[in-house]
C-alpha cells in the first residue's frame, strides 16, 4: 500500500474576526468519500471500472491453486426481463461466491440460462402465431433466447454480480444439446427409460405433458355432484347384505365427483375393502335403495333431503366385481354399459360417499387399479383430445370443450334421474404454471424414467437411491431435507417426453408397425449427437432417415417428442460441470441455491439424473430461499398491481440497497418488500456509510508504514476496540459460512451504531481532534481505526459491493487503485493483531459500559430539562460498589473522557442502597477548543479561553493518554 498524501489534514486557521471557537486548530480531517452515496448515479460507473479493470479476471488470478468452492447456477428461463425473485436469487449467490473467494477459495461463478421448452415457445407463438413449422419455431426460439440472455446479463451485472458473463452456459449451446442427448442415451442404456400409456399431467394450451414442477394450484369453481349407478345385479346385492328380499324401489350405488366431464369415460367404481358400506332404504315416493359408506350415510341423506333406514351393512370387499349400470345408460344406448366395482385402499370417508367413480383415462389410481384387472391399453375409453375437446364421435357431447360440457352432462344426469345433488364447489385445482389454465390427468403414450424398478446391475431402485443420497446432503434451512425427501417418496414415474418442438429431441427411430425401437438405437444416438454438436437440435427436423438407416428407413419413423425442460437443466451437472465448463467447475458442486419451488424442480431433476449417472447427488448442500411478497404477505402479480421491478429499484435506490435488503431479510421465509421496508434499509445503509466515512477520514493522514503503533503500546480502549472487531469478525465469518446473512447485517448495524458510533468513536473524537497530530495518543487511535477498516471493509464487501469498493479505492490509495488491478474482492479476510489479556479487558469494559449506559441515560434526562447544554457541561459524582469502584478507579483522570464529561468523582459505598449518580452543572469556564469546562480556563492572559491541556497540545509536548 503506497504512502498517502498528508494534505488531507486541514487545520482551521486563526481568525479573530470569526467566531472564537474556530480560532484554534484541531485535527478535523476531510475525505473524498462522500456522505451521500448517490448510489443510482455512481454504481454504473463502478460496473464500468470493474469491466475495464477486468476485476473478475483479477479475482481468478488471485485464486490460482486455491481449493475450489463451486456454486452451480440454476439457470433462469431466457424468455423475458428479470424479476425481483431473480434479483434475490442472484444477489444471494453473489454474496456467497464473493465471500468464498475472500475466504481462501477459488470460487468461480458461471451463470447459466435455461433456453428450451415451453416458456420460450409460448413467446414465439405470441409473436408469430401458431402456424409456424417446427424448424421456424426452433430458429426463432434460438434467436429470441439469445436476445433475452443479453438483456438479462445487463440487468444482472447492474446488481453488482461478478461472474463469467462472457462465458456463461446455455442449455441451447450445441455442445450442451449434444451432451444432453448422450446423457439420455446412457440413462436409456442403464434400463431406467420405458415407453408406456399412463395418465400424465396434460395442458390443453401447451398440448403437451407437464412435469410435476410445471404445475401450480389455484382456486377453481366446479360442479360438485352426487350420481347414482343403478343396480344391475339385485340378487347379489340382496345376498351381500344378508336380506331375504330387497324392499321395493330403484337401487343405486352413489358416487361423488367434482369432475362431471369424466362421467362419459366411466368404466368402474371403487370402494375400500375394509370400510363398512350400508344399504339404505329411502321411503320416498317412489322409494329408493342407496348404497353409501356407513360413516357418511347421515351427511349424504341430509344433502339429498332424504330420510331413510339402514337395512344392511357389509364390508367393501364383499361388493367386489358387482356390476352397476352407467348413469347415462337410459339416455343413450351408447352408454348402456356396466361399471364393475374394484377395490382401492386410497379411498377415505372424510367426505363424499365413500364410493369413487373411475375413469382410467383421467386418474392415476383409476388407471393403476384398472390395469390390475388385466385390462389392455386398448380397453381404456379416452374421449378427450389434446386440445381439451371431446372427440366428435362421443355420444351427446362430441366436439364440446370438457369444461363447457360439464353443465350439459349434469343436465342429462338430472334427466336420467341419477343426479341426487348438485352444487358449486370451490377447491384447489391443478393449473399450468405458464398458461394459468386448468389441466387434467390424461392417459397418453409417453417416455418415462422408472422410479421403482431395479435395473440390471443396480442394487436399488432410483427412488431408494435418491432417498439414501438425501441423507448425505446438508440443507439450509434444515426443513428442506424433509420437503425434498417427501417429494421423492411420493412422486410418480418421471414423464420425460414432451409434445413440443423447441427442445432436445428424443432421437429414437421407431418401427412403424411394431412400435419398437431400432436395434442400434444407442449407436444412432451417438451419431445424431455428433450432428447436433455441429449444427444444433435443428438438424433432427431436416434429418434424412435414410442417411442413418439405409434401405431399412422405410420401416421407421422419427420420434416427434422432445425431452422435458427439467431434464435440460437437471442434467447440467453432466453437460456443464463435467462438460462445457469442466475447467472452471468440479463435480459434485458444493452448493445449489434456488427458491423453495425447486425442491420439485431443479433440485429434484438434478438429483435423479445424477443418481443414475454418478450414483451420488450432484451437490453437497442445498440452500432454499422463499418468494418475494409485498408488505401484506401477498405474492407479486400484475393483477394485484404490487409488482416491484428490480430495474426500477436500482434507478430509484441503487442496487446496493437491494443487496442490503436481500441480505438483511431472513430468506428461509418469504421476503417482504415495500417502499417502507426499503426506506428502513436506506437508514441502515446510511449508518454504515457514515461510519465508514468517519473511519476513512480519520485515517487519511495515516501511513501504516510510518505511523502504526504496536499493539502492546496502544491506548487501552484502542486495544479493546481491536478485541471487539476481532470477536465480531469471528462471528460474522461464521454466519457467512452458515449462510446467515440477516444475522451479519444485524450485527454490523449494531456494531456501527452502538459499538462504534455510540461508544468507541464517540469517546475517540476528543483524542483524534485535540491531541497533537503526530502524538502517540492520536496515532494509537488511528492504528485501531486502520485495523478496523481493514476488517470491516472486507466483512461488508460481499453484501455492500459498490460501497466497499468505493471505500477501498480510497483506503488503499486512490492513485494506486486507479493505476493497478487493485480491488477489495481479491483480498483475503484480514488477520487482526492479537491482544493479550483480552478476557480481562473485555470484562473491564463490560463493567465500564454498564455504568456508562446509566450515566448517559441520566445525562440525557437532565439535559432535556435545560440544566445543562451538553454532557461536557456536567460534573458527575459516582457512588458505586467496591468491585465497580476498583475497575473505574484504574482509569483515573481519563474516566471523564469515557463518560464525555468534564469531571468525574468516584466514591466507594458499602451498601448497594447507597449507589447513585449525581450530576450537576460545572461552575467553570468552557475551553473554546476542546469544549471541556475546566478550572484552569482563563489562567493564561495570552490564551484566556484555552484550558492547559489544549495549550499543551498546541504549543507543548502534548498530553499522554493511557486509557481513553
What does this structure look like?
- With 964 residues, the protein is of the alpha/beta class.
- Among the domains are: 65-175 and 624-672, 3-Layer(aba) Sandwich (Rossmann fold), CATH 3.40.50; 219-376 and 397-428, Valyl/Leucyl/Isoleucyl-tRNA synthetase, editing domain (Isoleucyl-tRNA Synthetase, domain 2); 675-702 and 717-838, Orthogonal Bundle (Isoleucyl-tRNA Synthetase, Domain 1); 857-923, Class I aminoacyl-tRNA synthetases (RS) (hypothetical protein PF0899 fold, 2-Layer Sandwich), CATH 3.30.2320.
- 40% of the residues lie in helices and 17% in strands.
- The protein contains 31 helices and 33 strands.
- Strands 13-11-12-9-8-17 form a six-stranded mixed sheet, sandwiched between helices. Strands 3-25-26-19 form a four-stranded parallel sheet, with helices on one face. It has a four-stranded antiparallel sheet with strand order 7-6-18-20.
- Helix 23 (716-737) packs antiparallel against helix 24 (741-770) and helix 24 (741-770) runs antiparallel to helix 25.
- It is elongated and about 125 Å long.
- The two termini are 29 Å apart.
Amino acid at each position: 500500500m503506497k504512502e498517502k498524501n498528508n494534505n488531507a489534514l486541514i487545520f482551521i486557521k486563526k481568525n479573530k474576526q470569526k467566531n472564537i471557537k474556530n480560532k484554534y486548530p484541531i485535527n478535523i480531517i476531510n475525505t473524498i468519500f462522500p456522505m451521500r452515496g448517490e448510489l443510482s448515479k455512481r454504481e454504473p460507473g463502478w460496473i464500468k471500472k470493474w469491466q475495464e479493470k477486468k476485476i473478475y479476471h483479477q479475482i481468478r488470478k488471485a485464486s490460482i491453486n486455491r481449493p475450489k468452492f463451486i456454486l452451480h447456477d440454476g439457470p433462469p428461463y431466457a424468455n423475458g426481463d428479470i424479476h425481483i425473485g431473480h434479483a434475490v436469487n442472484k444477489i444471494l449467490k453473489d454474496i456467497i461466491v464473493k465471500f468464498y473467494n475472500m475466504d481462501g477459495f477459488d470460487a468461480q461463478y458461471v451463470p447459466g440460462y435455461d433456453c428450451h421448452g415451453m416458456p420460450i415457445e409460448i413467446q414465439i407463438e405470441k409473436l408469430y402465431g401458431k402456424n409456424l413449422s417446427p424448424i421456424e419455431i426452433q430458429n426463432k426460439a434460438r434467436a429470441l433466447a439469445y436476445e433475452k440472455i443479453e438483456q438479462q446479463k445487463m440487468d444482472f451485472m447492474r446488481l453488482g454480480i461478478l461472474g463469467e458473463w462472457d462465458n456463461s452456459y446455455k442449455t441451447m449451446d450445441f455442445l450442451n444439446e449434444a451432451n444432453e442427448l448422450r446423457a439420455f442415451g446412457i440413462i436409456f442404456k442403464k434400463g431406467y427409460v420405458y415407453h408406456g400409456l399412463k395418465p400424465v399431467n396434460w395442458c390443453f394450451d401447451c398440448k403437451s405433458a407437464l412435469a410435476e414442477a410445471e404445475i401450480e394450484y389455484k382456486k377453481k369453481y366446479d360442479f360438485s355432484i352426487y350420481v347414482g349407478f343403478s343396480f344391475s345385479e339385485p340378487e347379489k346385492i340382496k345376498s351381500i347384505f344378508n336380506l331375504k328380499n330387497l324392499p321395493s324401489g330403484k337401487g343405486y350405488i352413489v358416487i361423488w365427483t367434482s369432475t362431471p366431464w369424466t362421467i362419459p369415460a366411466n368404466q368402474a367404481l371403487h370402494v375400500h375393502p375394509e370400510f363398512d358400506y350400508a344399504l339404505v332404504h329411502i321411503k320416498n315416493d317412489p322409494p329408493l335403495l342407496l348404497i353409501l359408506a356407513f360413516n357418511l350415510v347421515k351427511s349424504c341423506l341430509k344433502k339429498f333431503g332424504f330420510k331413510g333406514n339402514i337395512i344392511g351393512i357389509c364390508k367393501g370387499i364383499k361388493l367386489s366385481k358387482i356390476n352397476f349400470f352407467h348413469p347415462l345408460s337410459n339416455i343413450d344406448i351408447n352408454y348402456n354399459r356396466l361399471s364393475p366395482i374394484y377395490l382401492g385402499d386410497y379411498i377415505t370417508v372424510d367426505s363424499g360417499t365413500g364410493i369413487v367413480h373411475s375413469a382410467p383415462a383421467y386418474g392415476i389410481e383409476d388407471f393403476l387399479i384398472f390395469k390390475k384387472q388385466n385390462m389392455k391399453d386398448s380397453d381404456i375409453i379416452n374421449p378427450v383430445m389434446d386440445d381439451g375437446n371431446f372427440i366428435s364421435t362421443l355420444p351427446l357431447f362430441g366436439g364440446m370443450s370438457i369444461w363447457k360440457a360439464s353443465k350439459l352432462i349434469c343436465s342429462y344426469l338430472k334427466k336420467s334421474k341419477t343426479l341426487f345433488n348438485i352444487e358449486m364447489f370451490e377447491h384447489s385445482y391443478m393449473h399450468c404454471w405458464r398458461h394459468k389454465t386448468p389441466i387434467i390427468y390424461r392417459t397418453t403414450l409417453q417416455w418415462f424414467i422408472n422410479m421403482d424398478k431395479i435395473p440390471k446391475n443396480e442394487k436399488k431402485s432410483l427412488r431408494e437411491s435418491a432417498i439414501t443420497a438425501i441423507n448425505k446432503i446438508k440443507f439450509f434451512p434444515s426443513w428442506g431435507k424433509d420437503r425434498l425427501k417427501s417429494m421423492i417418496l411420493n412422486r410418480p414415474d418421471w414423464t420425460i417426453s414432451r409434445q413440443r418442438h423447441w427442445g432436445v429431441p428424443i432421437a429414437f427411430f421407431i418401427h412403424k408397425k411394431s412400435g419398437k425401437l431400432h436395434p442400434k438405437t444407442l449407436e444412432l444416438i451417438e451419431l445424431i449427437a455428433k450432428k447436433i454438436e455441429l449444427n444444433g437440435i435443428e438438424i433432427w427436423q431436416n434429418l434424412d432417415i435414410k442417411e442413418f438407416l439405409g434401405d431399412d428407413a422405410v420401416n421407421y419413423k422419427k420420434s416427434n417428442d422432445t425431452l422435458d425442460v427439467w431434464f435440460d437443466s437437471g442434467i447440467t451437472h453432466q453437460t456443464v460441470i463435467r462438460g462445457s465448463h469442466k475447467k472452471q467447475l468440479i463435480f459434485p458442486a458444493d452448493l445449489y441455491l434456488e427458491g423453495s419451488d425447486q425442491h420439485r424442480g431443479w433440485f429434484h431433476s438434478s438429483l435423479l439424473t445424477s443418481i443414475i449417472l454418478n450414483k451420488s447427488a450432484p451437490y453437497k448442500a442445498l440452500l432454499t430461499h422463499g418468494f418475494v411478497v409485498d408488505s401484506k404477505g401477498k405474492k407479486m402479480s400484475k393483477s394485484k398491481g404490487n409488482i416491484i421491478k428490480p430495474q426500477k429499484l436500482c434507478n430509484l435506490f441503487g442496487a446496493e440497497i437491494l443487496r442490503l435488503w436481500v441480505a438483511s431479510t431472513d430468506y428461509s421465509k418469504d421476503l417482504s418488500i415495500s417502499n417502507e421496508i426499503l426506506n428502513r434499509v436506506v437508514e441502515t445503509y446510511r449508518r454504515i456509510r457514515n461510519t465508514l466515512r468517519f473511519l476513512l477520514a480519520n485515517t487519511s493522514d495515516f501511513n501504516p508504514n510510518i505511523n502504526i503503533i504496536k499493539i502492546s503500546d496502544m491506548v487501552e480502549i484502542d486495544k479493546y476496540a481491536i478485541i471487539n472487531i476481532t470477536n465480531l469478525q469471528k462471528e460474522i465469518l461464521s454466519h457467512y459460512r452458515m449462510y446467515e446473512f440477516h444475522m451479519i447485517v444485524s450485527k454490523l448495524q449494531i456494531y456501527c451504531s452502538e459499538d462504534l458510533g455510540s461508544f468507541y468513536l464517540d469517546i475517540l473524537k476528543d483524542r483524534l481532534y485535540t491531541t497533537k497530530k503526530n502524538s502517540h495518543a492520536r496515532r494509537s487511535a488511528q492504528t485501531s481505526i486502520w485495523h478496523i477498516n481493514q476488517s470491516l471493509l472486507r466483512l461488508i464487501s460481499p453484501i455492500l459491493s459498490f460501497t466497499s469498493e468505493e471505500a477501498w479505492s480510497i483506503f488503499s490509495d486512490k492513485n494506486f487503485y486507479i493505476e493497478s488491478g487493485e480491488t477489495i474482492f481479491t483480498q483475503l479476510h484480514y488477520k487482526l493483531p492479537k491482544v493479550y489479556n483480552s478476557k480481562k479487558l473485555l470484562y473491564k469494559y463490560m463493567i465500564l459500559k454498564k455504568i456508562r449506559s446509566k450515566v448517559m441515560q441520566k445525562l440525557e434526562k437532565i439535559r432535556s430539562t435545560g440544566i445543562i447544554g451538553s454532557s461536557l457541561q456536567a460534573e458527575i459524582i459516582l457512588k458505586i460498589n467496591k468491585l465497580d469502584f476498583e475497575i473505574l478507579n484504574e482509569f483515573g483522570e481519563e474516566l471523564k473522557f469515557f463518560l464525555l464529561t468534564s469531571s468525574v468523582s468516584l466514591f466507594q459505598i458499602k451498601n448497594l442502597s447507597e449507589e447513585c449518580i449525581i450530576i450537576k452543572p460545572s461552575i467553570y469556564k468552557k475551553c473554546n477548543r476542546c469544549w471541556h469546562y475546566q478550572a484552569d480556563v482563563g489562567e493564561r492572559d495570552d490564551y484566556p479561553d484555552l484550558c492547559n491541556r489544549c495549550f499543551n497540545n498546541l504549543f507543548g509536548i502534548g498530553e499522554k493518554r493511557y486509557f481513553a
